[in-house]
Amino acid sequence: MNRTAFRGASILAIVGLGLSACTARTSTANESSGGAGSGASGGAAGEGVSAGTGGSAGTSGEAGSGGGDLPIGPCALTSPAEAEPNDRETPTKLDMSATLQACLDEEGDVDYFEITIPDEGPGGAVALSASDVGDCRVRVELLSSTHTKLVGDEATTNGIGAGVWFEAVSGETYYLKSSEFKAPAQDSDAPCPYDVTFSYTLIDDGHDNATQGGAKDIAVGEPVEGYYFHGIDTDDYGGWYKVALSAGQVTVRLDAPADIKPELSIFSPLSDELGSDWNATYGGSAIVQTSVGAGTHYIKVESFQPFGNYRDGGTGTQLPAHLTDRYVVTVTQ
Q1: Which domains does the chain have, with CATH numbers?
Q2: Is 197 in contact with 140 (CB distance < 8 Å)?
């Protein structure tokens, strides 16, 4: 190798080492001399070294993901939404006055939601609903803590909501079960989106008088108000009162809310029934007039209903009158 070729090769090696980490590299061309001619012939032309090939371009990095809540699942839910799998073993917990987005993803899908009633007073009125329903029909069922069905509702038209109300016992846990309700001719497997809402109203008249032993003291001539409420898991309905009477005639009157048929009884200090009255008209009055001896007497407020037809749960989310309006008891002598 002649001096010129040696210098060119050395420079190329150094440059190559220095640029090995670069994205692209350019090689430097080298020249060679022709060989010596023999005799009269001229020497052959020397062949130049070929130019180097450039390195391949680097690969660009992947774009980062955007932040924030993205639509979830086949119904494109956004927060706040149900927490899958949202089944019987792992239900989504509902907060009071909360609304969650939910989706019945496919045929046969069933959603479960858990609600816990505040441990305050005797209990209250709960309304649960499935609203903003897609092009489908939803069935909702209220279940007890042991998953026994208590009350239910189902839509009869696509896109129409369904809901239930009920009287709940304080501190108890209940479940809302929702599923798709298909008409016989309906055969769509499309996902069914809906919103689920839970609202709660405390019902507490401060009486705690479900039994005769807990009868509340009242005075002659002073009306007292109370709720027809007992909670969907109990048997008590109405309330007990006690009043100190003088010997003579007494009148006891009970005025009921618009959806209640009232029933009223009065008992002696020894718990003997002295008189009773009932009214088969909703929102009517029951009146007892009788003679009494001196002493503390007991008054029992009830609802005159067929056995087992207590008005403690139903369809829709409009609370009935007996959960918004109070009855009135008045004793005069």
Answers
A1: 92-202 (2.60.120.380), 212-332 (2.60.120.380)
A2: no
Strands laid side by side in the 327-332 sheet: 224-226, 327-332, 248-255, 285-292
CB 123 within 8 A of CB 103: no
Give the residue carrying structure tokens 């001229």. 42
Termini Cα distance of the chain: 137
Residue linked to tokens 């990095």: 61
Between CA 73 and CA 111 the distance in angstroms is 14
Q: How far apart are CA 293 and CA 193, in angstroms?
A: 66
Give the pLDDT confidence of 115-153 residue by residue, as tens digits: 999 998 888 999 999 999 999 999 999 999 999 999 999
Q: How far is CA 183 from CA 14, 138, 139, 149, 158, in A?
A: 82, 11, 12, 22, 10
CA distance linking residue 192 with residue 136, whole number of Å:
6
